[in-house]
Amino acid sequence: MKGVEEAIIEVKDVYYAYPGGYEALRGVTLEVRRGEFIAIMGENGAGKTTLIKHFNGILKPSKGTVKVKGIDTRTKSVAELSRIVGIVFQNPDHQLFEETVYDEVAFALRNFGYSEDVIERRVAWALNILDLQRYKDRSPYSLSVGEKRRLALASVLAYDPEVLVLDEPTAGQDYLQKEKISQTMNLLRLMGKTVVIVTHDVEFVTSYVDRIVVMSGGKVIAEGQPRKILANYAVLRKANLVPPQIVRVARALYGKSLLERYDYLSPEELFNDLRRIMGNTR
Ligand SMILES: Nc1ncnc2c1ncn2[C@@H]1O[C@H](COP(=O)(O)OP(=O)(O)OP(=O)(O)O)[C@@H](O)[C@H]1O
């Protein structure tokens, strides 16, 4: 897909030092293309959250540039950029302000001046998708952590930004709710959205992303298709990531040297390949 879609976010040689002086980004260059799903992975403290905070201008680079739809983020307010790039942060408590779940999801829509009937439809749609409709009259603070995280996602989904950035979307979700998040990913794909997911969840990314960007020590240390990155033990080790189960099975079967050749991402791929090798067509 390289070179075909236009870049919607362009990060060019960005350095960022927090006020205390700690340099959390040390020369990051990255392009996110329209309609692409990418995962940013890396060990704790690698700089992932610091990087995504540059996407809607909460943080501005100390050096280098970040452009959103060709516009330098230094020239726009966070409110303006947030209409294009909606971020769902790791800690939902920082994003919930309203008295009811309904009002929480309606908040941005009211700010953007939508009519009440459009707001009502959009809120119901987003709450349904994330299995929160039954809580619509409750206080956001009465929800569990997993529910609060889904509520923060519903709020961003409802106002329909072009790019959605999700920081650890599957953390704290049980199996069923993880499925809800997965369905939401499929929906976003159908809607042609651009999605950036920050995650440590190697199993989750195998199904949803076109490209993985691996960060370590404030730098991008590798990027590429999931099947290449997730079979690269050296990169994964550097980023404190455990390879997906299927990669571990393939390594146990074929050994380290053949892992590049047998870069399965699902049990079905491995099974079909085994059938092919064994000549079993039943
Ligand atoms: N407000 C701050 N002031 C000073 N240093 C900070 C601040 N916020 C983050 N840092 C530091 O910057 C580095 C990068 O942090 P960041 O939150 O971007 O990492 P991360 O890759 O998102 O980690 P995690 O996987 O734990 O969420 C860390 O060493 C962190 O301690």
From TrEMBL:
This is ABC transporter related. InterPro entries: AAA+_ATPase, ABC_transporter-like_ATP-bd, ABC_transporter-like_CS, ABC_transpr_CbiO/EcfA_su, ECF_ABC_transporter_ATP-bd, P-loop_NTPase. Signal peptide: none annotated. It comes from Thermofilum pendens (strain DSM 2475 / Hrk 5). Residues 9-242 form the ABC transporter domain. It holds the Pfam family ABC_tran. It comes from the Archaea. One of its GO terms (cellular component) is ATP-binding cassette (ABC) transporter complex. Belongs to the ABC transporter superfamily. GO terms for molecular function: ATP binding; ATP hydrolysis activity; ATPase-coupled transmembrane transporter activity. SUPFAM superfamilies: P-loop containing nucleoside triphosphate hydrolases. Its main location: membrane. Keywords: ATP-binding, Cell membrane, Membrane, Nucleotide-binding, Translocase, Transport. The keyword S-adenosyl-L-methionine does not apply. It is found in: Cell membrane. Probably part of an ABC transporter complex. Responsible for energy coupling to the transport system.
